[in-house]
Amino acid sequence: MSWMNDWNATMKRHMITALVAATLAACGPSGSTSSSFFTEAGSDLDQGDFGNATMNNALVQTGQQDYTINLARRFNTEVTAMVNFAFDSAVLDASAQATLRQQADWIRQFPEVRFKVFGHTDLVGTAAYNRSLGLRRAQAVVAYLATQGISRDRLEAVVSFGATQPLIPTPEPERRNRRTVTEVSGFVETHPMLLDGKYAAVVIREYVASAVPDTTVQQGAISTGGG
Question: How many domains does the chain have?
């Protein structure tokens, strides 16, 4: 009977091994968990997301993430974030300059905030040329904002998406695709959670502005033409 006991024990070991392997293989579509189980510790390289959850929690707990999101929403609500360009051009026309002056007025109110300018083109032309053109458009916006008193240190990056993100998917020339978009991207190195002089001024400004009563007087509608 001893051979029978040995056989049963062997079969049990095989069954347990197979069950563990099947369970581990089911943990991921590529069997990476199972593979790591049977290899030495540290053989799998971190893919770059280690610590992201902790970082995200820290941003939320200190109010930084919500603050950035809220400012981005305010920026897109209170000003026009996009300017458009003529075909194959990075020249800012009068309308674009007026929009950028509006952006600059808003940006000056928040000295702790940084911005990115994204350049886009329509789908006419080669990918390489459009990336270059989108970059020139973004650079033109950065240069104009700088003339309005905005430090280039606060314009975090100049990025070109070229023709890869059209608003209107058409191979024809389309002005709405020939654009730049200005977005809130984060904070300057003097962190906003540190109540330095500049950020204190921002807090005071926002507090005072919130206490100003609405003095708008509703008047009868006056027709000025147009439609």
Answer: 1
